[in-house]
Write a structure and sequence with these properties.
This protein has eleven helices and no strands. By secondary structure, the protein is mainly α. The two termini are about 25 Å apart.
Length: about 230
Amino acid sequence: MNNVHIYKYTNIAHVLSSVMVANSQNNSQMRRKPQQARSQERVDRILNVAEQMFIETGYQATTTRAIASRAEIPVGSLYQFFPDKAAILKALAAKYIEQEKQLFADLHTEEAIALPLSVYVETVLDTYDRFYTANPGYRIVFEQLFKATPEIPISMYEEMEIPLTAELQKFLARRKPSLYPAQCELIATISVEVVGTLQWLSLHRDEVFRTKVVGETKKLILSYLKLYLDE
């Protein structure tokens, strides 16, 4: 489930001031979207190389020239798509957001409705844990996103939070038709928030700690959902 919960660990005053700054400044965005397969391949290469360098040497120590050099493209070609390093970071975050939304949708099929509740919870949490393990750049990208940009990208958070909550709300209604829509919305909102926050926490420690957090999260969310969905 959703994991863009870094803002919960930042100082509230800083968040508020950052949002005000966001209203008065232009965000770094891609200069243009790739229209051809060759251009898309170049953008993908830039993103893959940049993410790997952020992991290896850190965001601050990585330059756009170094990214272009390692990607074996002229730096001018990089600037055709990305005006600066922050735009690359945001593009990586946007890519992860789309992957997470698709992953969540794939987990909430008609077949999933018939799964025992314990199997459903286990499947969702394990699937996301494997996703984060397979993508070590995830934590670095989102953590740095809040440090490197002058604004807190609340819109990016909502871009993933709202669809996941809506998807889960529909799933709950199909699984337990007797639930009122307002109940489904509340259960979905709490589930997404709680699981997302704990999953983000699990990414900041060693593997042993992460495994324990995931295990405790399964117990917590299963107990909560049983209050409403117990067969």
